[in-house]
Write a structure and sequence with these properties.
two-stranded antiparallel sheet; 2 strands; about 0% strand
Length: about 325
């Protein structure tokens, strides 16, 4: 066994001044470790969305009626608050797990050799999005689950998933300039698909804000729109996204695109089909909570799938450092 190095006072001071640099000097993670750290942050970003949906679907949105404490007199939930308080407070605690996952991704990216500034910045971007969304979540509680703030809370979580997906992808790439794998028209078609998906997700928050699941058993403000009409519009937009994904797969086949974009588009199409089945079943069965929760999980998968299609359209190889050849003087000496 290797002896544990003594930590001097100078080491302790350096660790306090810049803990990330201190760790990076003493630890070099493998590429697999960095990839797993980025994936863990992405998984937790999805988990926090699903558990947030569970809070809403169980009517526990005001289980802790205030913020940042659970009640005016208690930081944590109390037995008098029942299961709703436990569910709401549990979701708040998961935010710390999410922060730990994002922190692990930042440390792993910062300690990687060679150092990749862009990768570390993506980790810090996730951290600040999480902090912003935590504050926004508190505001959601303080304003009594106002549907517009709830929608903004979900959309900011969607932005977090986008950054986490990008970081996960970047851990498997190099830092060379992106090299497109398909032509400009195909790239434009994918950007239309991305825009349509953003609209689909945004309209989904309107459906939720106008629908029957208010998030709490008390009287909660709703978006003043006809829920069924908004749902039908959401369905039409979903079919547009499905059609775009199906057409994109045929275009990629026609232009003999590489395997990566084809596989990612196929995966997206299958996710969309599954999400569509869940959406129609929940609509015709009066929105059972379990299916609505699955639909929220599916929306995360759809968003990740679309982003993976977009990111598969280019490749970024490693930057190869120039290795100098032997000098003339060395060659003559050896001769």
């Amino acid at each position: 066994m290797e002896p544990v190095p003594n930590v001097t006072r100078a080491d302790a001071v350096a660790a306090l001044r810049n803990p990330l640099a201190f760790i990076a000097e003493r630890w070099t993670p493998t590429n697999r470790t960095v990839r797993r750290a980025a994936l863990a942050a992405l998984v937790m970003a999805v988990v926090i969305v699903v558990t947030g949906g569970a809070v809403r679907l169980t009517g526990s949105g005001l289980g802790c009626p205030t913020w940042p404490k659970c009640t005016d007199d208690s930081l944590t939930t109390t037995s008098a608050m029942g299961v709703h308080g436990v569910i709401e407070f549990g979701n708040r605690m998961l935010t710390y797990v999410l922060c730990a996952a994002v922190g692990w991704a930042i440390i792993a990216a910062r300690s990687r050799k060679p150092y990749r500034r862009g990768l570390t910045r993506l980790g810090w971007t996730q951290f600040w999005v999480v902090m912003s969304n935590a504050v926004l979540g508190g505001i959601v509680v303080l304003v009594g689950l106002n549907p517009y703030t709830v929608a903004a809370h979900f959309l900011l979580s969607t932005a977090l998933i986008a950054v986490a997906t990008l970081m996960w992808q970047r851990t498997r790439e190099g830092d060379a300039e992106p090299r497109p794998l398909v032509g400009k028209p195909v790239q434009q078609m994918v950007w239309v698909l991305v825009a349509a998906t953003v609209l689909l997700i945004a309209l989904g928050t309107v459906v939720t804000g106008a629908g029957p699941h208010a998030g709490d058993s008390s009287e909660v403000e709703r978006i003043p729109l006809d829920w069924e009409n908004v749902t039908k519009l959401h369905s039409v937009l979903a079919w547009i996204v499905v059609t775009l994904a199906f057409a994109l797969w045929f275009v990629l086949k026609a232009v003999d695109a590489p395997k990566g974009p084809l596989d990612r588009t196929r995966d997206l199409f299958l996710i969309l089909l599954g999400q569509g089945v869940i959406g129609y079943v929940q609509y015709f069965t009066d929105l059972p909570e379990v299916l609505v929760g699955l639909h929220m999980f599916g929306s995360c998968l759809v968003w990740i799938g679309v982003l993976r299609v977009l990111l598969s359209l280019r490749e970024r190889p490693e930057i190869l450092a120039d290795v100098p050849g032997p000098s003339t003087e060395t060659t003559l000496t050896r001769a």
